[in-house]
Amino acid sequence: MRPKLVVGNWKMNGSRAANASLLAGIVAGLDNANATCAVCVPAPYLQQCADTLAGGKLAWGAQDVSVHASGAYTGEVAASMLADFGCSYVIVGHSERRAYHGETDQVVAQKTLAALNAGLTPIVCVGETLEQREAGQTNVVVGRQLSAVLELLDVDAAARIVVAYEPVWAIGTGKTATPAMAQEVHAQLRSQLRERSAAAGERVAILYGGSMKPDNAAELMGQGDIDGGLIGGAALKAADFLAIIGAAA
Ligand code: PEP
């Protein structure tokens, strides 16, 4: 069985003072955690994470990465820079990046490769809009999004990613996919990974994200192909984030 992974996506929230208190609250409750846990924070706060969390049980990461290694790309952050700050993870292809910054499946694939080349674990987000779900396109959309990534990776690299299924209509809306709906998509993603290689099918964690909260986390993470959660709003309160981590049996 794959170990559970619970990752907080802070999005564009935080301040040095608020982060200090949130991180201290999370760390104080992690002693008995069975899951692997991480927070993905705004880039300016990576140093604060490195200072506060080094050597502990809570890993940290970023929310985006450049496809480029270095050079004249104003405002971009390279994967090697994230590694320099001790990041373990980076989220790529979040639906907010796809929707507001025009990231295509191909760009997401290149970001995934850049992260892997720097020794980071990319958390590759896939998910359908409400319109796509209602048109019966869910499996086609998430299948295409994952395929673009797998096509760019060799067999070894494909087994080193994390996938997050995040139905766009469930993000920040309070609407959650039912455990059965989520499991159905996760099972499809699992077979797609298995087709790429047995190792990818076996090792890659597939997280669910989209209004995961303390009261629905256990049921979602109890599904056979749901290996943890990518948590937005509920990751900003230590008690809620810890309750979700506690629900990851
Ligand atoms: C997210 O944005 O990755 C997310 C899952 O958000 P929320 O938990 O707030 O729906």
Automatic annotation (TrEMBL):
InterPro entries: Aldolase_TIM, TIM_sf, TrioseP_Isoase_bac/euk, Triosephosphate_isomerase, Triosephosphate_isomerase_AS. Substrate binds at N9, W10, K11, G172, S211, G232, G233. It is an enzyme of class 5 (isomerase). One of its GO terms (molecular function) is triose-phosphate isomerase activity. Residues 1-20 form the signal peptide. Its EC number is 5.3.1.1. The active site is at H94, E166. Gene3D superfamilies: Aldolase class I. It is found in: Cytoplasm. Keywords: Cytoplasm, Gluconeogenesis, Glycolysis, Isomerase, Signal. Pathway: Carbohydrate metabolism; erythritol degradation; Carbohydrate degradation; glycolysis; D-glyceraldehyde 3-phosphate from glycerone phosphate: step 1/1; Carbohydrate biosynthesis; gluconeogenesis. It holds the Pfam family TIM. PROSITE patterns: TIM_1, TIM_2. It catalyses: D-glyceraldehyde 3-phosphate = dihydroxyacetone phosphate. Involved in the gluconeogenesis. Catalyzes stereospecifically the conversion of dihydroxyacetone phosphate (DHAP) to D-glyceraldehyde-3-phosphate (G3P). Homodimer. Belongs to the triosephosphate isomerase family. This is Triosephosphate isomerase. The gene is tpiA.
